[in-house]
Specification:
By secondary structure, this protein is an alpha+beta fold. 27% of the residues lie in helices and 33% in strands. The protein has one domain: Fusion Protein Consisting Of Minor Coat Protein, Glycine Rich Linker, Tola, And A His Tag, Chain: A, Domain 2 (2-Layer Sandwich), CATH 3.30.1150. The protein has a four-stranded antiparallel β-sheet with strand order 1-4-2-3, covered by helices on one side.
Length: 95
């Protein structure tokens, strides 16, 4: 799993986010590939606007990545982060 989060202040929040998403991600799909998803985290920690940025070519992989994001509950954004939302691009690699 790889993240593209530019200009974010708090690496510990990113680590926690990755851990929580990985818990909900079904990695063993029996197919190799990768998919890129984009989403927004609100100040309260809700994940919104989940979009497929780059499909894997396999619907099962794309849906597993989307599901992992939709069921993940994140903590509030850190107080030191000044913006009301954080946009994230994440790559799910299936091996």
């Amino acid at each position: 799993m790889q993240l593209d989060v530019s200009n974010f202040c708090c690496p510990e929040y990113i680590e926690q986010m990755v851990t929580l998403i990985q818990r909900n991600w079904q990695q063993n799909q029996g197919i190799r590939g990768s998919t890129v998803m984009k989403f927004t985290i609100t100040r309260g920690g809700s994940i919104q606007g989940v979009m497929l940025e780059r499909p894997s070519g396999f619907l099962a992989l794309d849906l597993a990545a989307e599901r992992a994001l939709l069921i993940t509950r994140l903590p509030e954004l850190p107080p030191q982060f000044p913006n009301p939302t954080l946009t994230v691009n994440i790559t799910f690699d299936y091996r």
